[in-house]
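LOG
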Amino acid sequence: MNSENYETNAAPVERDPRGANAQRHGILSEHVPPAERAAYLAHVEAVRASSGARGYLQERLAERAALALWRLDRVARFEAAESASEQRRVLQGISEAVEYGHAGAVTKAFNRLHRMVGESAACLRADPSLSEAEALRLEGTAAHLEALAAGHDGAGLSDNESYPVGYALGTYMLTVKVKPGEMVQAMTGRKPKAGDVEAVECGDWEYEAEELPGLVSLWRARLPEFGDRVLLSLALTQRERAAGVRAAALEAQHVKRDALNLAALPSGEVLEKVTRYEAHLERVLYRALHDLEAARRQDEGQDTPGPLRGVVDAGERHA
């Protein structure tokens, strides 16, 4: 049968309509996991549309660029997942009060604050206002001591305000050999009962509001010459303690934030691999975009941009 008869008599060839599916729906879609393919195919269509790719070659180059972009996004998601995972480990370590690594630095910082404030480290982490409340209490005590130095008799304070003031006065009078029993009698107007002297000596006396004026009177009687200067010195100590609490609280918050920031960066080995992979994908992306632009300009009869091969190959040799 000659060729003419063959062409005349042969039955027409019907194309399988599925044959163009790969071109329409992403030839490289098999390179992404099945769970990602629906989103990936939409991504490919968007890249094709925005790039203006026409014809098989341009669409293939657009798909290559789309795949590189998709993989770059995956790298970003990997880094985010690594950071989130490590930060969760740090937060877990902080809650368990471990004393090593990033979490250990936070544990130590809040333990220092705990020793200054008295509240547990866990409570101080959960409620930063507790530290500020202690600083304000110390400053309030300083103000009351300064008022005593200016001649106030100590009347009118609440029990909460009287205790730290009375404790400061009582502790100092013990150092200058004022007898605990004398202090009890001045505060209560009666002779000491069993256990009163020991309570004063051990720092367990409550120093209630109605007891403070008597203690102030005893202070002035026993320290007539330098009592006011001592009160001002005690007040200064309270203000310094308040400043110390605020500084320690701020440092603890900074240490916690720094620990989470440090945990946000992958380990050196992982970071090196990610950086190399990311650089490789960027080279693939830029080469695909360059070649796509060249193919489009060639179809339009325009000059095409020069090759990137020398630059890309040099980068690959150094990667």
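LOG (cont.) second protein
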Amino acid sequence: MNSSPPPPPEASGPALLIVDDEALFARAAARHLGRAGYACQVAGSLQEARAQLQRQPPALVLLDMRLPDGHGFELLAAHPPGESPERPTFIMLTAYGELEDAVEAMKLGAADYVKKPVDLDELRLVVEKTLSTAQLRRRVDYSRERSVHALDEVQMLGDSPALRAAREQLEALGRLAPRSGIAPPTVLLLGETGTGKDVAARVLHRSGPLRERPFVQIDCASLPRELIEAELFGHEKGAYTGAQGRRVGLIEAAEDGTVFLDELGELGLELQAKLLNVLERRVVRRVGSVREQPVSARFVAGTNRDLAAMVAAGQFRADLYYRLNVIHVTLPPLRERAGDSLLLARHFALQTARRYGLPDPVLVPEAEAALQRYPWPGNVRELRHLIERAVLLGGGAPLGAACLGLPPADPAADLPAPAATGPASERSLDAMTLDEAERHLIERALARCRGNVSEAARQLGVTRMALRYRIDKLRLGGALPAPP
């Protein structure tokens, strides 16, 4: 039998090959699936099917068991699972009494089977489900491969006692191997922005029996609020406008690996309730579905927010907070990691230079002293970006303090004291503690600049980020003008 005519114009979806010697059924199935958007071809024998597969491999093959020139097993066995990423997915067409053959076909790598006589609407649903599952499997395999490479490279660099303690906690938690049917413990990672909570989550995942399983990172702050529920939990076809097909959510896609919920404090209260249900009952329900899917992944959450304060303010659910806070690891800020800023700077400088084929960089003593003096309000992330910029713009020359663009050691201390204007200003700077003097100088600068942080930072001789850090540390937000 010759291949069928080209599919109708609307058939722009996945390519299907129907291998069946019953011409009426094959053509009817091709027309029905073509109307659903699939690009269908028909082959009436193994020989025609082999030629078609060699010429243009389809996404899916509907394969009859009994054909004029052999058995469908021959074609199935010639394309074993894992052969290549382009291997088509197979669905077997079985007649009454061929159930044992169908079971054997599943062992050989068939995704599913359909019994004849075939209901065409049922066939379309089976094809849709099988292709969706195959696509998800490829996405997860690809993500797993990328994650394995990323996990091999990730490191928590540092020799300070504070970092060593956090790293040892993470590795101990990662080595925990819960019994079958018992959910792994949820871990909460706390720390300022830029302290490396994403790296910590990967170290935890890499340290134990789950290292070969998927690692799915979800940035709760960057997902669009109108789509975050569907991204987390998945959706069924038609669940909302634009939901063209079934989609598995990120939590479900993690399978029995690790889900890292970064910036968890940004989730709204309604989604917090749904997440709590997932953690408590270990099931997830896709948007638009009435069925629940089991969840076996380990959950790791990270935030730079004060969740206890958010609970008191009614911005975070208390029950979810207590559920998450069973085991927590606090990542120290860089300013509390004595010596680590220099170690990290050397590592990032060498890494950047080798990535771009530049000479190995050298930090001069003045630059090293400046790196160790600076408080790093943006933590490791700020340090990394600063070093990368300095290396790329340095042209291979030794990196001096000027290349880094960091402020002097204590520029505020050298500024003249402003004129006294109130009871708090009547005291001499000599009679103040360091915190009191710093607070006094910043308040005066902000008052002079009418709350303009950039101008106040210029007058104080510090960077805007450094001044922002001091404002937050001293809780001087009230010194800033209210937003319009």
